[in-house]
Amino acid sequence: MCLRWTHKLSGRKSSAEMGKTMILELKDTNKLPMKTFRWLGVNELNIKQEIPDIKPVKSSELTGESLDQLVVTKDNTYSIQKIPQTGMGENAEEFIRNNRNRKLTLTCPKGKKLSEPLYLNNLLDKENAALAEEIFIVAEAESEITLVLTYEGREEEPLFHGGLLYLMAGRNALINLIQIQLLPDSSVHLSNIGAECKDGGRVRITQCELGAGYLASGIQADLKGDDSEFQVDTIYFGDKNRSLDFNYVVNHYGKNSKSEMNINGALLDSSRKIFRGTIDFKRGAAGAEGAEGEYTLLFDKTIKNVSVPLILCGEENVSGKHAANSGKIDEDKLFYMMSRGLSETEAKKLMLEAWFHPALKNIPTEELKEKVKNYVKERMSHVSSLQ
Questions:
Q1: Which terminal CB of the chain, N or C, has fewer other CB atoms within 10 Å?
Q2: Distance from the Cα of residue 99 to its chain's centroid
Q3: Residues 77-114: pLDDT tens digits?
Q4: How many domains are contained in the chain?
Q5: By the 8 A CB rule, do 188 and 218 touch?
Q6: Residues of the chain below pLDDT 50
Q7: Structural domain contains residue 299
Q8: Is residue 153 part of a domain?
Q9: Quick one: which of 323, 247, 307, 217 has its CA closest to 33?
């Protein structure tokens, strides 16, 4: 049987409701903070997808040489009123929270600076087809933590991943989050993140959104403290009939706060992508600086690509910059590489790898970098000639 979920429902499913699949239906997700471009139909995202039933899963183990310096629990002490708001919004947040089959809180104690990254590797398959996780990452004052999350799956199975992540950086603390999503075509993937930074707190997010047939990703970062910082580096890849939808929002509250968004992607075949990027300078955020850039390589005429960069300003003494550009591969660079003996397809694949370099350089191990590169190469193997 199918279970329909809407944001009006709450609670977990009874045993009588358990089945093989369920219909995920969410309204008003990935909303722009201020409606605009109504004629483009990009002010929000409404989701309706069939996903595997969410059941208990085999838990992945957190690993890393710095694990013994971390406090790891299944519960948190934060009320809903005290946790950050998320980029996808409350309906997606409520769905994951009420259906979660994994809950984890990682607390880096005051003054601890973890020298090595922590890893949480997730493999979805027939027995563990749906993962709905809620993860808190708390960096107390003067602490530093790096967490690497990877998501992979078996090609032949319909899969679902829904991630609800809260990042809370205390005074002069650093949270470095790296997400590597390499799920197969049969997957639905939601990534919903809320971040908050106190005075001098920093959050850095790297997202490699390279897989899944249907992808929706939202980040909201609230720079509450003076001199706080937020940075996101994202790469995405759309081919076949993939659908990708992004919504990044940075709210500047603190004086001299800084934000930077760097998004590089490539679209092939009949894939579709919407990117919303908002920088909002709140009153009192004097001296704040924000910049966003989203750049897309287009390989086919049949793709749909929409970018909505938005800057809102309630404070005079601020600096905001945004840029969005899409276009074909530089023909001069392509000719140069082909003159060195590469075929046209080989040259274009190499240029795509270089296009992804800004995010790839943030991945801490060569093994993971190669895994990402090989995944993209495999995904492009069906393309006989890139236009």
A1: N
A2: 20
A3: 777 778 999 999 999 999 999 999 999 999 999 999 99
A4: 1
A5: no
A6: 1-19, 386-387
A7: yes
A8: yes
A9: 247
